[in-house]
Amino acid sequence: MTPIALTISDAVKVSGISRTSIYEALKRGDLTALKAGRRTLIRHAELEAFMAGLPVYQAGL
């Protein structure tokens, strides 16, 4: 079962994106997060949408 929201650490593990890149995306507004007390959570669907919007790698360009 897929969780509804992920901690930053879990988002890093699931996506393969670095912690720094996730925080930069949050700062730019490319990715949104929720706060639950001191925990920062990213909705799974939000992370998937962010990943889908990343450019496709094209070798040699």
Describe the model.
With 61 residues, the protein is α+β, with helices and mostly antiparallel strands. The chain contains three helices and three strands, in the order βααββα. It has helices at residues 8-15, 19-28, 44-52; strands at residues 5-7, 34-36, 39-43. A hairpin with a 2-residue loop joins strand 2 (34-36) and strand 3 (39-43). The protein is globular and about 45 Å long. It starts with a strand and ends in a 9-residue tail after the last helix.
Radius of gyration (Å): 12 Å
The biggest beta sheet is recorded as:
3 strands, antiparallel
Per DSSP, what share of the residues sits in E-state strands of 2 or more residues? 15-25%
Count of separate DSSP helical elements: 3
Strand order of the largest sheet: 1-3-2
Instruction: Note the gap between the termini.
Output: 39 Å
